[in-house]
Design goal:
- The chain has 426 residues and is an alpha/beta fold.
- Helices cover 41% and strands 14% of the residues.
- The chain has helices at 2-16, 19-22, 34-51, 62-75, 89-93, 102-107, 118-122, 147-153, 164-173, 196-202, 220-232, 252-257, 270-274, 318-328, 331-339, 348-351, 368-372, 385-400, 406-420; strands at residues 24-30, 53-59, 81-85, 134-139, 141-146, 187-189, 261-267, 287-290, 302-303, 305-311, 344-345, 376-377.
- Strands 2-1-3-10-4-11 form a 6-stranded mixed beta sheet. A 4-stranded mixed beta sheet has the order 6-7-5-8. Strands 9-12 form a two-stranded parallel sheet.
- Helix 10 (196-202) crosses helix 11.
Length: 426
């Protein structure tokens, strides 16, 4: 019995010292729903087998994730890796809770950084150049168009020569009141997933001054862009978000699938999300895509958003966490992201492959998203940007709705925003 007991203790000691039980475990918070995470889980299991790094994933609803990260970082029991939204990434980065990835990137020789769109990395940098997250997916807009509505009107499809003026004229022509009741039965345009800021950028203007301390909407170029935004957002050409309900649809993207909108700027993720029947795999509408229109300055711009992966400074497993975020940007994972999740991949090689530009699937001109990456822009990376943008949005919405003149809007923005930015009002 003594010999048997000794052998059991010796075997247990060997087991406890084995690599399988000594592996590193990292915690990963994300907002993927079960169906989306199911596409990634087999690859994560492969990562675990190849690296010996165990990944514990936790789904946190997108609406809760920002606050959960802040609370976890303050408590000292934060996860190792977190998914970060471009809508609130800058705000969290300014709290100083994320690891600057620059030192790890500079000494890394295993990842092909040249294959990643430069704008994808720039999106996750502070004004001072801190790389607080590694890119995972890219969200930029192109203009989708319903081919049948152009065919019925005998009009040529829009292409990369489309300008602000020609888009407006097209939208006006394709807004049709067929029964004469004073309400359009189809609309030429819908602005539900684009924004006035992209028109300001395209016209050579900006939202804030270069130092990030004052608003910059009073320049002639910015004013021209806002005037255009007002025109293209009026009900004689634009389907508002709530107007879709009149046709029995929950929102404009669904109304586009129903043939009620001719032009809709939105991201590459939209077709699989809105315009494909999940049960049959059948496309609900015949559509294609083209570039954002050219401004009077001959330039384009589009907002660059997306998802990044940040490593918390409190993580005790920095290198393992870095290996995991690189894995999420690998060719294998990005292929699944583009092919199965409908996301625009951050890697040029994948974005130009059959994984994203699927032969025989619409839009035929899906390469437009790859080309649009060259003119994608991010919102200013300043503290309290969410508050600043809320003020600007409210004022511009009042201008569009004819509740204020543009001069009043600019005056109000110039009075309120500098204080939020820590600068005295003009």
């Amino acid at each position: 019995m003594k010999r048997a007991a000794w052998l059991w203790v010796w075997t247990l000691a060997l087991f406890l010292a084995s690599p399988a039980t000594a592996q590193t475990t990292i915690t990963f918070w994300h907002w993927n729903n079960p169906e989306r995470q199911q596409q990634l889980d087999p690859l994560i299991r492969q990562f675990e087998a190849e690296t010996g790094i165990r990944v514990e994933s936790l789904m946190v609803p997108w609406a809760e994730l920002k606050e959960r990260i802040i609370l976890a970082a303050a408590s000292g029991v934060a996860p190792d890796v977190v998914a970060i939204s471009s809508e609130w990434g800058t705000e969290l980065s300014l709290l100083g809770i994320f690891t600057d990835l620059n030192p790890m990137i500079e000494r890394d020789t295993t990842f092909d950084y040249d294959d990643v769109f430069p704008a994808a990395f720039e999106m996750w940098q502070t004004r001072e150049g801190v790389q607080y997250a590694f890119p995972f997916d890219f969200d930029i807009n192109a203009v989708f168009y319903a081919k049948a509505l152009f065919n019925e009107a005998g009009m040529a499809y829009p292409d990369d020569t489309m300008t602000w003026s020609s888009m407006y004229e097209t939208a006006k022509r394709l807004t049709v009141d067929a029964d004469g009741d004073g309400l359009p039965d189809q609309y030429g345009f819908a602005n539900g997933h684009t924004h006035w800021a992209t028109f300001v950028w395209a016209n050579g203007a900006d939202l804030l001054t270069e130092d990030g301390m004052r608003p910059a909407l009073g320049t002639p170029a910015a004013r021209e862009a806002l005037e255009y935004w007002k025109a293209i957002s009026q009900p004689d050409v634009n389907m508002s978000w709530g107007e879709a309900a009149r046709f029995g649809y929950p929102h404009p993207p669904a109304a586009f699938a129903g043939g009620k909108i001719a032009l809709y700027p939105i991201g590459a993720w939209a077709p699989s999300a809105f315009w494909k029947d999940s049960a049959s795999g059948r496309w609900l509408i015949d559509f294609d895509a083209t570039h954002i229109p050219l401004s009077p300055q001959g330039e384009r711009a589009t907002y660059a958003g997306g998802q990044g992966m940040g490593i918390l400074k409190t993580s005790a497993h920095q290198e393992s966490a870095f290996a995991f975020v690189k894995f999420l940007a690998s060719e294998e994972v990005q292929t699944v992201s583009g092919r199965d999740l409908g996301q625009f991949p951050i890697r040029r090689s994948v974005a130009l492959s059959d994984a994203f530009i699927v032969p025989g699937e619409p839009p035929a001109n899906k390469v437009v998203f790859v080309e649009a990456a060259a003119y994608a822009r991010t919102y200013p990376k300043v503290a309290k940007w969410a508050e600043v943008f809320s003020v600007m949005n409210t004022q511009v919405a009042d201008f569009v709705a004819n509740r204020r003149s543009l001069s009043e809007v600019i005056e109000n923005v110039n009075a309120i925003v500098p204080t939020l930015l820590g600068s005295p009002a003009e």
